[in-house]
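INFO worker-7 received task bundle
INFO bundle size: 2
INFO processing item 0
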Amino acid sequence: MERAQNRSTGRQTNRPGEPGTDRAHRPAAGQPAPADRGAAPRAELELLVHGVGGTTPEKMLGDPRTVRVTGDDTAAVFRRAVDTEPGKVPRGEPVREAYVWCNLTSGDSSRALWLLLLPFMVVNLAHWMRPAATDRPRAVRLYGLLVRLTALTLTVLLVAAACEVALDLVAWQCAGAPACARRHTWLTFSGVAASVADGGWWSLPGRRLALAALVPVALTGLLWYLSRRTWSAYESHRPMSREPEPETDGSALAMPGFWYGRRLVARLRAAHTAAGLLTVAAAVATPATRFDHRPGGSAALNVLSWLLTAALLAGAAAAVGVVCRRGRSENTLDQALDRHLVRRLPLGALALLLLTALYAGWSRPGWHSTGRLPGDPAFGTLMLAQGLLVIALAVVARDLHRRAPDRRAGMRGLGGPAVALLACSLGGVMSGGVAQRVAGWLDGTGALPAGPPVLLTWQASTIPPVLAVLLLLGIRLGLGTARLARAERARIRHEHPGEPEDPGRTRTIAQVRAMATLTDRAPLVVAVLTATTLVLGALALAGAMTTGTTPDGAAHRTADVLRAAAGTSQALGSWLVGFGFLLFVTWGRRAYKDASARRTIGILWDVGTFWPRAAHPFAPPCYAERAVPDLTWRMATWTQRTGGRLVLSGHSQGSVLAAAAAWQLTPSTRKRIALLTYGSPLERLYGRWFPAHFGPPALAALHRDVACWRNLYRRTDPIGGPVRIPDDTSPEVDHGPLRDPLAYGRTAQHPLPAPILGHSDYQADPDFERERTCLLARLRPEVPVQRPEPRPDPRDSAGGVG
């Protein structure tokens, strides 16, 4: 009977007691550790971790017959079936295992809807882009606090935009205008259209507002549900508890509680949910309060309005206090949960919302819905608060950068504030565009009384100028890439002396190399977008404040021209938002179905979802909170049980997971690990944008802690690059740029044209097998092996990527 095995899906596992399982008993104290079943005679293991594109264990291991060693359908470790059979492993070769984690980020195409929460993910990134200074703990805590407060304003902005659409445009303006209500027959389900004409029960504006509040309440509940569900699926995986050992000075990723943020996420989820519900309550209560405060209003309702306002302000203060009171606890594995706070704060906000709905629905003779709801002051205050928070964040970030300057850091330490500003502007543009689009749809007959708030209208008008700036920036980058490609052609001709030149082949290679350098222009793109956003945001705020003035003479004609241009831009911007929504969903579905599209679209997405939710609880879930503990447990238990050594081999984003998992090991276990990275963004992306966790000191400490490390990259790779370990006195980490393509023309070894591999298929290069063999040799202290010299390559003098 053939052994139970997984040929393609990995849904079956070995039976208990069969080779290849992880159910061996730990040795008694003082006894030698038994050899891992199915392992090589030297107890050597190579653990492969794939990148963002995803793959199958059969492709990773180069064998159609694979067996799942440990794990589940979401993430698992596989071996070749032959490696589970004793005596069939060639002597001197390591056992190879593949950790497959692609289901953590891909899967059902409905996950594309996470793209709608892009502002939340972007502001969460800003938390991790803090400069690397460690001697200012108060400034570090202040930085995290400012980012958390900025994230809270984004939640309020999203719910306020939903209130603007449902409460103001639909329930207040359209349902209050007979022509608009009769035109949109779907309003008749609640009797609104009829009540406007005959004075029915729904004719009271407060009752329509209470009914329409179900839309933003449902949105807030959906965000709470998604956050809680993913919290249970990802943050519930506890990292391995470590014995107390002296730690080396390295990255914060080595702290025991770094990948276990359940307590903070639960607190932030409660605070953001309460803030969203209180925002809805304020939107429902404000019109009724204004009516009750007029001269001659009901004294009882006036007193009740003041009490309700005080309760709403107290609830808002409680939500802000929860956000401010506690940040991440990374020094220890914090397993406590603030259950009373997590439950009572959202329930208290929901109770206030219900009381507000009852208060607004009370009968008030003479109350009619005219004009628009007071949304202009609310959105203006939000925009101003976001601007002040970003400015304060920039001041703190600049101070931290001066304390620990890093010339490779993106935007000289201002990457975090810039990304936070982009998150705020993205939320504002999406809110303004959606409000403008819905208002245009409702106002088919010109019967909508006032339309959306002026500030949202101006924010929608900024979309075409932003796209124009991006177009100009794209033209500049394209021209620069073309010049670099021309320079690369001469370099490529010198790299292949004596071979007949193929102009088409030379142009193709040069173009791929030049295009690969666009990744290093990301700071320029972010800086231009930040400056554009800052200027257009100020203009939108100024335009909203000056709307309604009546200039005279030439100023009047100039104002008419500007008003016409703004109107055209607003209309175009509202249509672009609708188009962008469809584009987001389409790209998201394609990214989760097509591997090539995923590699193109998913770079930013996988970088963003790598980090835990430290600032915004409604951001997409962090897959590393499952993947890093998986790798750590596998490496620690295998080395403890077998006493062997292993090579941790990571490609692309898999190299980042490998480094994070190595940091989570004890220092003594790290010394048994060799790290092989290829196509790695460790320094090129993570080191530049997240210097506090992947900066030069952190990477240098990781190099000292592991037994040995080798990094491979190509000049044609748009993602991977050198890791640039500073003051490297031990064997160098970075290998010279690998040859790509492997042959310029047709040769005896390559009779057909060799492809340009770029970011993929690093194992196809002969240097890969050579470097892996050298790492294994360096892991065996009892076998002295001299490191072979790398083959000469004329491109080594040209330097690496980045």
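INFO item 0 finished
INFO processing item 1
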Amino acid sequence: MTETAWQRRTAPASTTELEHVDAWWRAANYLSIGQIYLQQNPLLREPLEAEHIKRRLLGHWGTTPGLNFVYGHLNRAIRDRAQRTLFVMGPGHGGPSGVACAWLEGTYTERFPDIGQDEQGMQRLFRQFSFPGGIPSHAAPETPGSINEGGELGYSLAHAYGAALDDPELLVACVIGDGEAETGPLAGSWHANKLLNPAADGVVLPILHLNGWKIANPTLLARIPEAELVALVRGYGHEPIVVSVGADDEDPMVSHARFAEALDDALDRIAQIKSDAAAGALEQRPAWPMIVLRSPKGWTCPDEVDGKAIEGTWRAHQVPLAEVRENDEHRRLLEEWLRSYRPEELFDERGAPRPNVLGAAPAGELRMSAAPVANGGELRRALALADFRADAQQVDPSERGAHSTGSTAVLGEWLASVLRDNPDTFRIFGPDETASNRLAPAVYEATDKQWNAETLPVDEHLAPTGRVIEVLSEHLCQGLLEGYLLTGRHGLFNTYEAFVHIVDSMFNQHAKWLESARKIEWRAPVASLNYLLSSHVWRQDHNGFSHQDPGFIDVALNKSADVVRVYLPFDANTLLSTADHCLRSTGYVNVIVAGKQPQPQWLTMEEAIEHCTRGLGILPWAGTETEDRPADAVLAAAGDVPTLEMLAAASLLREAIPELSLRVVNVVDLARLQQEHQHPHGLPDAEYDRIFTLDKPVIFAYHGYPWLIHRLTYKRAGHEQLHVHGFLERGTTTTPFDMVMLNELDRYTLAIDVIDRAGLAESHGAARRSFIDARDRAKAYTREHGADIPEVADWVWPGAASGS
């Protein structure tokens, strides 16, 4: 810990300091309103006219003055204490605030030199906001200092705690809107304070901003008795400091003094806790301070418009004056409102901020808009990754599939080395499923689960510091990981496939952030967000229909091809190769789907690396085609269980119809099925045609919903010959083979489909009938014995049995 970290205040904020904060606040408010309304006349050098105002008024004023108020006060404290601070703006729809504060600090001009700190730059700043070809109305990657978009509310506190992990000198000031506080993700995030280590991690200062209203309704936390609110946040493990500002007829300097005292109190308490933690003097988990700030909605806007109350009501949420181009009285009120901040005191003749505005602001990297952690790609260091080949499963090409093991357990051995070799830059997050997904026991031999709540003698692998974080909220796991990645670190989120849907929307928001960030030169790429989806649809036969859903793949592939990758490794070696690739990548969302149950191992490590590098390919050992006997049909698969069933079908056909020439194809990288112009991984048409043929039937066994494969390939030649088998939304508690039979993905159905599509139903009717009978026997056996028939359960690839 440096000498300047976690300093205490030696004296109350002076009048001069508070006057500087007030000037900052007024300037930021002026700039925020200008962004919403103005396209010309930024300094009001002439009376406001209709042509000075944008035709479309977009943005959110209601939360913005409170954000500017908090930001200005944090600036004073940062300057006073030399405290590294990241600002997380929960109400990210208050985007004008983030832009205004970054412009005042000079960071905006550093990032966008054409928007200078002068009158012309101010006009460009105003015009671009919510304007075609400009910037979004919410805080976004374009906003320096932002890691939280805030378009969809609820993620700020989880992002804040993720950012604080492994950064013991970082303060994360997180403003939580009272509307946001009503969301499920935010409610779960309050418990993250039981996960951080007071000595080894940074500190989150939640600032619950109660302005009383959402877009059209009051907020719950602003309408409950204060004693109930205080009891609630104390129950979450915080010691609240309640402060109200902006009361009617109150001198703003009184509000500033009151909040400055509250903020200094909170920071002094934090400094004491950090000092005690460093000295080993904490006897129990500390009650961290937080601030509950009450301020009027739309503070400082007109009290009343057209006889209706505006300030302090939901009517101030977005644009308080909506008809300023057409209505002279509204335009007069807007000009009066803007001039109430006394812009001539805030900006000099050039339009630059005057010294009094910047008097309490920090400089350099202490500026929150210039905080390096808010552009985490600049801090990211490549992981030290052990050679995954050391964990390879030995596969004898003459006995493929003879050995079975759980692929995720093998991955766990390698991940344990990643955890050991990257003790402060890599973490695994999961909703109580790291052990269930078989990454344990290996990862728990390398690290504990981080836990700072009570422990009991019966507990295992719980410790104040650990590289695995388990909490039964997928929202919190995802949010912590996002905050960790966006501030320059690496991680993996492992969860059950069916329940990753809980974070569908969070995934959407992060993917959009990554896509936007790619277009911003100064945003350095962050490490990819890596999902490991296990306990998947085909091996949740014991848990039943509720646990059987492979649809996250479809959700993922709806996002931009620039940022999303989906991989379906089908044995341990392909999983190791895929995971190594994903952990080395930056700027993507990687979705890896892999089963945890024992399964046959098919490829040598050298073959697996080559196959994964190609993304898909022919398995020559599984088919029967030769140069003299071109393929009559193609059996293709994507996913571990579909590959098993496809190989079993190929085996049945090889024995029953030896003259049938078969080609067997496996797909690991789903994007390879798309065309080149659709996805960077897309396979050229000529290569696709070479692999799948132009006119032969292709029977495709797919892990998920079958229509996705059709969607990815609908423009390919021969698409009418493609017949996909996958999950048909038929599930229950049953046996593994009955699950594939229910969904027509079983080996017998695949073999029958090949016979039918290849025109062999009449000439090989006996073989076809034998497969139908075998399927019926298998189904009847499950009903009688509650287990799969031995000829299926004990099946091995014929080469494994014969040694050929």
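INFO item 1 finished
INFO post-check item 1: The first helix runs from residue 15 to 37.
INFO post-check item 1: The mean pLDDT is 96.
INFO worker-7 idle
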